[in-house]
Amino acid sequence: MLPDSIPSIESPVEVRNFEVSDEDLPAFEDMPFEDIEELPLDHPGAKDPEYRKRRDYIASLAKNFRETGVITDVPYTEEEQGVWRYVAEELEELHRKHASPFYLKAKKNLGISNERIPQLSEMNRKLGELTGFRLAPIEGLVNTRSFLSWLSWRTMLSTQYIRHHSRPGYTPEPDIVHEAMGHIPMFTNQAFADYSQFIGHGARMATDEQIEQLGRLYWFTVEFGLVEAEGEIKAYGAGVLSSFKEMEHAFSSDVELREFDLETVINHDYTYSDIQPVLYVVPSYQFLKDETRRFIETFGS
Ligand SMILES: [Fe+2]
Questions:
Q1: Which residue did the predictor score with more confidence, 153 or 95?
Q2: Cα(285)–Cα(228) distance, rounded to whole angstroms?
Q3: Pick the CATH number of 24-296 from 3.40.50.2300, 3.30.200.20, 2.40.30.90, 1.10.800.10
Q4: Global pTM value
Q5: Inter-residue contact 155 to 201 (CB < 8 Å)
């Protein structure tokens, strides 16, 4: 099921009742993903034929990976590099002020700079050494169960294309800015990587209702989570870290901050918009890992 070049990694953590077999996982070879036309929000690039062609080309590289297991580095254009540089520079000051100290260090350790779009292959090499996490290219947004299930192999499905140049501050779907500026650095944290894997284990055992609960947990942590660090509240969620609008909002008086409580979070029905009215603060990534472990150990029993 896994392409050959993705070595199987022995999980450093175990969940007692993790008994779902690989056959229950959505097949990687024909992973369903959402077409640009099906996205719930307006896509600034949807009506630009040049952008669509380019996005299709980059998606074809991801498709090639799914068939061969080989990651092809994307030859990004100068325009695409310009979008990256613009967003990275806009985010820099906000990150310095509000990003979690771990994230800031991790971004540097992974060699993610403002100058150029990082390739999944180079980040994979470093992630592999640090926590055994890895990235697998994907063409677009996949459904919740498929996406979360792959975390079970310490694998995050990652897009490679970049948002449309007309609105560099906005994207209705994941893109390489969201992945590399938001998600990827956090996978160098052992507790966070283990936490992500637990979500993956949970997704493979979950009922439909539990998948929704895991989706909410993921949303309020991996996407929009805040953490206590050195006596302050900082951002570690990718949806916050990769958006200047969301970043400014998260640290304004317009947002309601709540202490993380698992039961509350898994029942908090959120709306998919680019501004979140409520955010949850965790005391540590280890706490998140321990709480989630307890939660998913109740699955399948
Ligand atoms: Fe995301």
A1: 95
A2: 10
A3: 1.10.800.10
A4: 0.88
A5: no
Is 5 within 8 Å of 69 (Cβ atoms)? yes
Paired with 33 in beta bridges are 142
Per-residue pLDDT at 73 exceeds 70: yes
Report domain extents, the chain: 24-296
Choose between 271 and 233: higher pLDDT: 233
Reply yes or no on whether 178 is catalytic.
yes
Q: Ligand 1 centroid vs 239 CA: distance in angstroms?
A: 6
Alpha helices, DSSP H only, in the chain? 49-68, 78-98, 101-109, 120-130, 144-150, 176-177, 190-205, 208-218, 238-241, 244-250, 262-266, 285-296
Instruction: Locate 150 and state its tokens.
Output: 């792959």
Q: What is the mean pLDDT of the chain?
A: 86
**DSSP class of 181:** I
Which position among 43, 95, 98, 178 bears the catalytic label? 178
Task: Check residue 71 and report its DSSP letter.
Answer: P
Told to judge if 183 belongs to the known catalytic residues of this protein, a careful annotator would answer: yes
Q: Are 120 and 79 in contact (CB under 8 A)?
A: no
What's the pLDDT score for residue 37?
53
Q: What would the two tokens of residue 218 be?
A: 């993921």
- Cα of 17 from ligand 1 centre, angstroms: 28
Contact between 65 and 72 (Cβ < 8 Å): yes
- How far apart are the C-alpha atoms of 88 and 242, rounded to whole Å? 9
Is 223 a residue of the active site? yes
pLDDT tens by residue, 240-283: 999 999 999 999 999 999 999 999 999 999 887 668 899 999 99
Residue 242 annotated to the active site: yes
Tokens of 240: 């916050």
Query: How many Cβ atoms from other residues are within 10 Å of residue 107's Cβ?
Result: 21
